[in-house]
Protein: DUF2188 domain-containing protein
Amino acid sequence: MAEGDVETHSNRGQWENRVEGHPELSQSYASRDEAIEAGRRFAEERGTAHTVVDSDPTGVITDPAPTDVPD
Structure:
């Protein structure tokens, strides 16, 4: 990916648009379709490429369990 390109991908049940070289511009979305539309629009406005990394959406946001929390 080149500087400023937008990649839409799934991350633990959420869909994200990651902007190459600009992590502060990255955004999360509840649905794949919403993320793709926003990513496409954002890339078009900036004159950069937009790619979608296909994966099966889980519909669940999960965080790893803490391993060092005392009982």
Summary: The longest strand covers residues 6-11.
